[in-house]
C-alpha cells in the first residue's frame, strides 16, 4: 500500500508534470505573468513539460532500463529547455516567463554538472519540485508557504521507492531553488 501511494506521488510530482501543474495554477491565479497572451502558456507547457516527458513513452516503446530512461529524461529536458532559451532570446517573452525559462535551463545545466562532474546523483525529481516551489513563493510570497509541505511528501515517496537518498533529494531541491532564485535576481536586470 505504501509503495503504491509513493509511486502515485512520484508520478504526480514528476518534473514535467509538476511544471505543467504549476504553469496552469499560475495561468489561472496570476494571468498577468503571461502578459494576457495564451501563446506564452502554450510555449511554456510544450517546452518545459511536454518535450521533457517524451522520455517516458520513448523509453517504454524502446524497452530501455531505468538508468537509460533517466539519461533520456535529461536529454529531452535539455532539448526543451534549450528551446525555451531560444524563446527568451528571439521572441522576448514577458519578464516572468523569461525567469521561468532561464530557471529551468539553469537547473538542468547545474544538475548535469552535479551528476556528471561532482558524481552525486542529485534528484531531478526534487529539483523539478524545488524550482517551481521557489517560483510559487516568488509570485505569491508568504501566502504560498504552505506549498512547501509538498517537499517532505516528495522526499518520502522517492525514498520509499528507493530512488534517492535524503542527501540526493536535498541537493536536487537546492539546485532547483537556487537556479530559480538566481534567475529571479538576474533576468529583470538583463531585460
Which helices and strands, and how do they pair?
Blueprint: H1 2-12, H2 15-29, H3 38-53, H4 55-62, H5 66-91, H6 95-116, H7 124-140, H8 150-160, H9 166-190
Helix pairs in contact: 1-8, 2-3, 2-7, 3-5, 5-6, 6-7, 6-9, 7-8, 7-9
Mean pLDDT: 93
Sheet with the most strands, sense and barrel status: none
Number of extended strands: 0
Specify the number of helices: 9
| Outline type | globular
Instruction: Domain count, please report it.
Output: 1
Low-confidence stretches: none
So what's the oligomer here?
Answer: single chain
Q: Care to give the gist of this entry?
A:
The protein is mainly alpha-helical. The protein has helices at residues 2-12, 15-29, 38-53, 55-62, 66-91, 95-116, 124-140, 150-160, 166-190. The radius of gyration is 16 Å and the shape is globular.
Task: Characterise the protein shown here.
By secondary structure, this protein is mostly helical. The chain has one domain. Helix content is 79%, strand content 0%. It has nine helices and no strands.
List keywords for this structure.
mainly alpha, 9 helices, 191 residues
